[in-house]
Structure formats: structure tokens, C-alpha cells
Amino acid sequence: MKSFCSNALKPNHSIQNPPRSFLSSTNRCLLQRPNWVSFANNPRCAFPRSDCVYRATSEPLTGVERVRDDDDAVAVADVGSETGGLRRKKLAAFVSGGGSNFRAIHEACLAGLVHGDVAVLVTNKGGCGGAAYARESGIPVIVFPRTKDEPDGLFASDLVAALRDYEIDFILLAGYLKLIPTELIRAYPRHILNIHPSLLPAFGGKGYYGMKVHNAIIASGARFSGPTIHFVDEHYDTGRILAQRVVPVLATDTAEDLAARVLTEEHRVYVEVTNALCEERIVWREDGVPLIQSKGNPGQYE
Fold it and tell me: Which domain of life does this protein belong to (predicted)?
């Protein structure tokens, strides 16, 4: 039976691993040096709360200055010296197939390489390999969207409510082939990432996914390819680019050869970026470009 979640469950519906009750609401405001600002807002509120205090200063900051409201003091958990007392983040992974990137991230979380945990999996295909792996791993599975083939799937508003029930901090698309609804993007602004198997903006957009991307790259004669991680907006593959890795395209490559080489880099870079996200090391330049702060030196960017 397919597993799903909703705030208003019908009597004949079942749910796997129901979410824990709400913790105290948190809202952290991070202020970097001038023109470099990162807001780590609780996704249950699309905008910063009015009681969250911002401290203005004319002096250059030597690191990240955290200004918290009273609720934050009781909500921070899993304190560790390497993460500056940040609580572990709750992640939702979205997949449509085997979900190898989702598996890589989940395994990295279990190994302590990511300061977060995959709390729920969302899929448009309840019987896909990624969903099977999630169930075997004790991760709840939500089917979205509702279609003729998936009549137990959720509507967009119910999906937002379900993710809030699971207290999700960030959403990671890992081979999810459906366009993300506007309701979800508005509920999680700058909190949704996607990975694409080409160096965007090249070979991206509607219809460019999976082997279609690699076949197009081989046919074009391009000498380089590689994965791109970007924030998600209302369109396919047009959100702000956060990270890329370059992979050579060899003269004798088939699309399968190139896909395997790119996938290896996908697993590496997605784990690294997810950890940076969980450690709140993503900052936004004043022109809207997101950057990753170096863990060892906050004054440098990866």
C-alpha cells in the first residue's frame, strides 16, 4: 500500500511513521559582513517574524553574528563544537526513480557527514526504487501529486501542510521530474534545491532530464559537462546556481559513459552542498547570487 501524509486523513487512509508533534517555533537571523546576508528562517513562516531582531553595525564583522529571539534558546538541539550549536536540520527528498542522490545524502547523514536527517521522502511514483529504499530505511513516503495513476497522492496545499507537520527545513530534489508547484515555492523560499546533470544554463529546461541530457551533450560536441545544483523557482532549471562540478567529455564517450562519470560527481557535490545548507553556510550576495562559505574560513567562498 502506498504511504502518504495529510492533515485531514480519510478513515480508509493509512500513514507510515507519523510526524512527531511540533517543537517550539524557531527563527534564526544571520547577519554576515555588509552586503552578505543569510536568513535561516523557519519554513512554517515564509517571511521573517516581526519579533526577530536585526542588529545593524558599521564595523566589519569577524564572523557570523547570530541574533536570536527567546524561542531559539529552547529549540537548539544536538549541540556540537564543529557546528557552533546548530540543531540538526530536517530534510525532505523528492524522487521519481531510483533516487541514488537521495541514497547518497541519507547515507551521509547516517555517517555524520551531513548535519541533518532525511525526515520524509516525496515521490510522484509510489512504487519507484527510491520509495522502496525509503520504506526499508524507515523513512515516511508521501505521494505527490494526485493523478489517475496515483489516486492516493496529495494536492499541493496538503503537501505543504504535510511538510510543515514534519517540520521540514529544506527540500532536496533528487531526480524528481515534476514541476514544483507555486504553493510549495512560496512556502519554502530559498529552501528548495535541485540537481541537474549538465552545466546549466546549457542543456536545461523542460524535456532535458536523464539520458536525454547526456545524449544531447554528446551530440553537441561539448568538451565538458557536469552536475549543477541550483535553487528552485517556478520554472525548469532556471533558479540561481549554487554549485557546479566540471566533468570532461571524452572523444569515445557514449551517453552511458558520460552519465556514469557525472553521477559520481553528483553524489559528491550534493552531499557537500547539503551539509553546507544544514550548517547555514549559504550566503546571498546583494545581487542575488548564492555562495557557499568555506567551513574553515568564513571569509572565503567555495
Answer: Eukaryota
Query: Are 134 and 172 a contacting pair, CB within 8 Å?
Result: no
**How much is the pTM?**
0.75
d(CA 183, CA 172): 16
The dihedral of CA 75, 290, 249, 178: what is its sign? positive
Q: How far is it, in rounded angstroms, from Cα 218 to Cα 235?
A: 25
| Residue of 196, 214, 230, 267 marked active site | 196
Single-letter amino acid, residue 13: H
- How far is C-alpha 135 from the geometric centre of its chain's CA atoms? 20
Q: Which residue has the cell 530505511?
A: 137
Examine the residue annotation and report whether 196 is marked as an active-site residue of this protein.
yes
Identity (one letter) of the amino acid at 139? I
The amino acid at 201 = P
Strands 116-123 and 141-143 turn out to be parallel
- Specify which residues 292 forms β-bridges with: 282
Pick the closest to residue 196 from 179, 184, 213, 182 (CA basis).
213
To which residue does cell 557525472 refer?
Answer: 262
